[in-house]
């Protein structure tokens, strides 16, 4: 069994529990977490005792997205700069790193065994990418899910919104950067079920146990067949475009404005402006 830094992993009653475990940072994604998600999924798929994987978050939230405070405030230098280009942004290097993270998250979707996201608190930005990489979402009524960086400085690299809720509602989310609560997520079909917070554990266990009663061969065939339909709809190509756009979004004039604001006033102040609904200055003008 592997040793993990950013998550915990355990198996009980044919269920593997993958729990994001950075509660002091609301389980924000660091450089280690994506690879550990992949490793845990691989471990579950290699274990004949496991039939379903449950993904959750420790503490107050499922996942608050990427841990970007240091990057936005300029404390770690130009991460995706071209080493031979005088600090210029290297879009291929950016794509390579972000695509690796996307592929790590998407092992939850490509996993031969079904995956369930148990969402409480917030599943926002990159945290929504993790949740939407799971086959099924069960969410607390009062949870919030969405992709606020769609307003500035980001694009959801897994590109799953349109495949989960259709074009119109995907546009409603990504043209505003709004979040929705769990009850709305269920009504839109983003989540399979929304329940009161105190009932979330029981609801997930009931669904996982129902799935665990099905032979592994049957589970694998049904999942592969359904996933193939989304692949036929161009999922791979859409993710390629989304991951490229995510890098570009951080290097537009507005993206530089957001980073400069974070450097001057702090990341939380920049996020507060982004999420408040105030107009993002065109061309990065103050």
Task: Write a short abstract of this structure.
This protein has helices at 33-46, 69-72, 91-105, 107-110, 126-132, 161-174, 182-187, 200-212, 216-232, 235-249, 253-265, 267-276; strands spanning 7-12, 15-20, 52-57, 115-119, 122-124, 136-140, 144-146, 179-181, 193-195. It is of the alpha/beta class and 286 residues long.
SS class: alpha/beta
Helix-strand sequence = EEHEHHHEEHEEHEHEHHHHH
Tally the beta strands: 9
Please bin the fraction of helical residues.
Answer: 40-55%
Radius of gyration: 19 Å
Spatial strand arrangement across the major sheet: 1-2-3-4-6-9
Helix count, DSSP H or I runs of 4 or more residues = 12
Folded structure, characterized:
This protein is an alpha/beta fold. It is built from twelve helices and nine strands. The strands form two sheets. It has a six-stranded mixed beta sheet with strand order 1-2-3-4-6-9, sandwiched between helices. Helix 1 (33-46) runs parallel beside helix 3 (91-105), helix 3 crosses helix 10 (235-249) and helix 11 packs across helix 12.
């Amino acid at each position: 069994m592997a040793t993990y830094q950013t998550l915990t992993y355990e198996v009980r009653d044919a269920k593997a529990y993958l729990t994001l475990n950075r509660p002091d940072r609301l389980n924000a994604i660091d450089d280690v977490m994506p690879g550990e998600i992949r490793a845990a999924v691989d471990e579950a798929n290699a274990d004949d005792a496991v039939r379903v994987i449950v993904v959750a978050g420790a503490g107050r939230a499922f996942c608050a997205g990427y841990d970007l405070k240091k990057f936005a405030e300029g404390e770690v230098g130009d991460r995706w700069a071209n080493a031979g280009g005088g600090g210029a942004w290297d879009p291929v290097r950016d794509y390579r790193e972000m695509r690796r993270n996307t592929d790590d998250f998407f092992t939850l979707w490509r996993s031969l065994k079904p995956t369930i996201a148990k969402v409480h608190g917030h599943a926002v930005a990159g945290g929504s990418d993790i949740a939407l990489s799971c086959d099924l979402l069960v969410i607390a009524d009062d949870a919030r899910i969405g992709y606020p960086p769609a307003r500035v400085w980001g694009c959801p690299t897994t590109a799953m919104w349109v495949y989960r809720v259709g074009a119109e509602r995907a546009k409603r989310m990504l043209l505003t950067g709004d979040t929705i609560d769990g009850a709305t997520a269920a009504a839109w079909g983003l989540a399979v079920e929304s329940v009161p917070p105190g009932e979330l554990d029981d609801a997930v266990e009931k669904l996982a146990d129902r799935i665990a009663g099905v032979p592994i061969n049957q589970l694998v065939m049904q999942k592969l067949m359904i996933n193939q339909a989304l692949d036929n709809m161009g999922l791979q190509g859409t993710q390629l475009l989304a991951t490229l756009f995510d890098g570009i979004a951080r290097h537009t004039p507005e993206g530089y404005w957001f980073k400069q604001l974070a450097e001057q006033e702090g990341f939380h102040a920049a996020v507060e402006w982004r999420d408040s609904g105030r107009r993002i200055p065109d061309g990065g003008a103050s």
